[in-house]
Fold this sequence. Notes:
The protein is mainly beta and 644 residues long. A hairpin with a 6-residue loop joins β23 (299-306) and β24. Residues 30-38, 402-406, 557-637 and 639-644 have low confidence and may be disordered. The longest helix is centred in the last third of the chain and has 11 residues, at 633-643. It is built from ten helices and 38 strands.
Amino acid sequence: MEPVLLQDFVRALDPETLPRVLRVCSGVYFEGSIYEISGNECCLSTGDLIKVTQVRLQKVVCENPRTSQTMELPRNFEGYFTPLNTPQSYETLEELVSATTQSSKQLPTCFMSTHRIVTEGMVVTKDQLLMLEAVVMHLGIRCARCVLGVEGQQVILHLPLSQKGPFRKWEASTPRTLLQVLQDPALKDLVLTCPTLPWHSLILRPQYEIQAIMHMRRTIVKIPSTLEVDVEDVTASSQHVHFIKPLLLSEVLAQQGPFPLSTEILEVPERRPIFLSPWLGSLQKGQRLCIYGLASPPWRVLASSKGRKVPRHFLVSGAYQGKLRRRPREFPTAYDLLGAFQPGRPLRVVATKDCEGEREENPEFTSLAVGDRLEVLGPGQAHGAQGNDMDVLVCQRLSDQAGEDEEEECEEEAESPERVLLPLHFPGSFVEEMSDSRRYSLADLTAQFSLPCEVKVVAKDSSHPTDPLTSLLGLRLEEKITEPFLVVSLDSEPGMCFEIPPRWLDLTVVEAKGQPDWPGGSLPIATVEELTDTFYYRLRKLPACEIQAPPPRPPKSQGLSKQRRYSTQEGGVKSSQILGLQQHTLLPKPKAKTLPEFTKDGSSMYSKIPAHRKGHRPVKPQRQDPDDDKHDYEEILEHFQKTI
């Protein structure tokens, strides 16, 4: 096939013969663009092979042959078209008359000239319809008497039979739709007429979009048919040509098979490394990989080391088989205690530093000393000094466990456990009180306890020979992340597999020849990957890793006069607004008495002043009116004995 314009090839193409392979004979390049303009290919090099898979009609441009004006027709245009000329042409009027009289059709007949005719002071433009009525003698010359329609009037013209053309006969034919005209090769570039359009004669110039496959292009290439490029059909001689289609790992993940899949790396994204793993340096262009499929389970745990000046960060797979033991958690504020509190699960902590209570805000905001033991009961609200409600954490103070004798003495002398209210911004420091020596798997631990959680790895993962978690003093499990990973191995080292997240390490690969073998038994997968600091903080910004909002700001310091005024006001706890408090039967009973039911009037409650012990700061009793001697101590003592 000889090279032709791309537009001409598409116009003559039969869609039933697709796909067709074309070779670009003369390339084209649009300055200012690299690959595409408006999503269409605009740069083709000489020698490129194009495998045309589909041709779509984009639009149809209607052109007036007289004025060269254009207008765009929609693809669903409902008008009907009739051709004004036929492919056969005649050089003179005499040839036209002779052909007409010899055929079965007789005069009159309609025709048009492809060139302008000047006669008898009039100009007949090209492609203007004339009706030849008869052959007559005019001024001693044999002429064709023609009728020309001009502005609704008929003008008689006498054209000599020697008048040169070329001329084309117009024959009435069946009106056709826009699609029928475009699909008929015989009507290509012919002058048409359409009653619904303002022009008497017109030419249709369709524009197509070619969808094709090219070498080393991941997606379908879209080429406009108006691209000025010459092509040659080489389908017959290109049956052996295989068009290489690159794939992203994200596309391999979306295809979901078939696995295993042998691939070769074409391109590695230029980004900062995400893992501190030795296999990461092997991911280079030309390296062959074997993809075994989707990693299971799909969740990972983000963890950081404890007890190091520079912490290390890890992504631990849900398939990790090491054994973990819980460690006491640390809470820098009361807000962190609230975040760790779970209804139905007792949470007991010990204060690790002295902290003064804000009694000017509320008399029940008590102070804490090192060694104070608390049990978290839940959130609540209390009246502040300015009359507004404040979110607080409701706790109860627990007795020391110094010995059996002291415990018995406390049971005899202690009254109801002291209630402690801590504002959420309370800057204390607490450590969890626990005695759990059980060894958990990662799946069991995350199912039974909320994160974050402090653990110590006591047994390494047997499938990971160099498990880095066993050498750490402690590990903080921070967040659970659900993200699909692909199980991959290097072709040079099929015995060790690792997991790649296509979302953050989207390699460009191409399918390689040969089908890899599935290794016998379970795949040895690296279940722990150490993260770079940059990627760690990037993960922490994910919606799944967003931490809770920061605790509320402490109230602004008041003037001395305002403090005195507000200190005389009562600040009680709204027992009706305490949220999340469980029934005391659900909580394990401490050795001291459990907290009695709260009442709205906090001043009517009595609490025993704890004796001053080492590490404890005595709490000052609230002042009572010296004249107020109406309390019935005998009745209280009787009630206390019944409680015991």
